[in-house]
């Protein structure tokens, strides 16, 4: 495990549904658990889902990015180009509906990337992306946003 692994805790209203999504569809290994929470290895990072009542799940605010209403509160992972393709196949096979369909963002420009958004069963948004040029992940020069 990398020493810079992040820890993220999310509210869910159904731990079994979270297990099906994170453990099954996304193939995240399960870690410790209790009747109220479960840890997952989310691509080398610690993701903890905490059981809450459904009325306590947060509302979704959005921000416009490249013609999409992107959920302002989301998390995800930057994958290799081929790994992103493999994930798309798994998501489609599992029948996961996209919150924002797979697309190429900033096509032909600095920072070109493929991205998609899905929701877990509790409504938490996840973004999966990959960059044509991985060095653009934190680039600040030569990036023009319209």
From TrEMBL:
SUPFAM superfamilies linked: Glyoxalase/Bleomycin resistance protein/Dihydroxybiphenyl dioxygenase
Superkingdom of origin: Bacteria
Name assigned to this protein: VOC family protein
Segments crossing the lipid bilayer: none
Organism: Congregibacter brevis
Pfam family, one: Glyoxalase
Residue ranges of every copy of the VOC domain listed in the record: 4-131
PROSITE patterns assigned: VOC
